[in-house]
Amino acid sequence: MTKQQANWSPYDNNGGTCVAIAGTDYCVIAADTRMSSGYNILTRDYSKIIQLVDTSVLASSGFQADVRALQKVLAAKHLQYQYQHNKQMSCPAMAQLLSNTLYYKRFFPYYAFNVLGGLDREGKGCVFTYDAVGSYERVGYSSQGSGSTLITPFLDNQLKSPGPLLLPARDAVTPLSESEAIDLVKTCFASATERDIYTGDKLEILILNASGTRVEYMELRKD
Amino acid sequence: MIREAMEMPPKGGFSFDLCKRNDMLVKKGLKEPSFLKTGTTIVGLIFKDGVILGADTRATEGPIVADKNCEKIHYMAPNIYCCGAGTAADTEAVTDMVSSQLKLHRYHTGRESRVVTALSLLKSHLFSYQGYVSAALVLGGVDVTGPHLHTIYPHGSTDTLPFATMGSGSLAAMAVFESKYREGLTRDEGVKLVSEAICSGIFNDLGSGSNVDICVITQGEKEYLRNHMLPNPRTYISEKGYSFSKKTEVLRTKITPLREMVEVIEGGDAMEE
């Protein structure tokens, strides 16, 4: 007697890739703007990035309906925090909040692959990487989404984060300058676009530093 | 029982002998090897003087692009070409096989090959494999009886059409054809329309991409325009470039000497069994 299988899935994968790199006094968060379903493109101009706080930016790939719901929940929780504590949430605090929010739905998860980037209370760049149910870790750089398998080995090679390669784990912000990190991110996406069908159209890059937030765009292959 | 099965000559067609074993392995947890599919846009149309075939150049393995510039327009005869969609190995094998059969037939008859000959050979082969040879083809050519264009499906059915599209991008390409096709197109109009249809597949279908290949076949002449259009250049190349160290990095070295000194004893006891 074979197990009965569901003939409808509540999830869909809208594809896309997210990357974040932490520097000594900046953080770069980037994602492509293509939203797809199966072999079709739904739109070429959809932002996967949201700035929750001045110092915290969330980029999520996966099922965009769940991503949007998650963003709303986090924004609401942040508003409550501001009322209760009379200050904005720090990036590590937001990181913990995101982890708890994801685990809350452990048995019907948000199909969202998240990368949280920002500046900590000292002004240093921080990047937190998540799985779908809230397991997280502070790292020097991270990539999630359909192109992550293509990008992560390249970043490992260029940024040589001691994280997974050496023990004990150390704080791992890259010594690269802000412009070098942006150049690296653009190369990552141009390369991932060549080989991943779900990544392309346009690249959105958010750069956080002491003077505030800046946005840059770059065209990617549209095929 | 086993000896009887070995003595019987193979009947041809698909041999299902290993299917039970494969099912058992999958149930035990073995992941089946994936096929390289071309996830494609291929088109053909008949114009005033002959046939024009078009194809994209992307080959995919699931969500990854395996080949950014593969050739999907296959040679069948000097006056016949065939575009292939579906499993790459199947389209290659079946077009090569029929191309050889056509050549032998040309030697035998002393005449130029006809498109309907290629059509019959392909459809009978695909039918005998009951759809397991996953090749969806657009066959076009010009012979003594005129220009011909056919589509062939994996199960062996065929259609004869003035314009045709196949592959995952077929709907995107057919939308262009249905809007703009008319009878009696000139060569340049035909090439332009085919390019538009393939581009529609390239940009709107994720299984198709990269460049446009075109093949124009007329009475007594053929033009294979490989990479006729390259609408997808790489968008960003870093000026400073990247370096990769040639050696594997040594993180730690530890040498453990195994023995200080080894004594060789002559005429020692033989080893016990």
Question: If you had to describe this structure to a student in words, what would you say it looks like?
Answer:
The complex is a heterodimer of chains A (223) and B (273). With 223 residues, chain A is α+β, with helices and mostly antiparallel strands. Chain A has 5 helices and 12 strands. Chain A has helices at 64-85, 91-104, 148-159, 162-165, 178-195; strands spanning 17-22, 26-32, 35-37, 40-43, 49-53, 56-62, 112-119, 125-130, 136-139, 141-145, 202-209, 212-219. In chain A, the strands form 3 sheets. Chain A has a 5-stranded antiparallel β-sheet, with helices on one face. In chain A, strand 1 and strand 2 form a beta hairpin. Chain A is globular and about 60 Å long. The termini of chain A are far apart. By secondary structure, chain B is of the alpha+beta class. Chain B has a 5-stranded antiparallel β-sheet, with helices on one face. Chain B has a 5-stranded antiparallel β-sheet with strand order 5-6-7-8-9, covered by helices on one side. A two-stranded antiparallel sheet of chain B has the order 3-4. The mean pLDDT of chain B is 90.
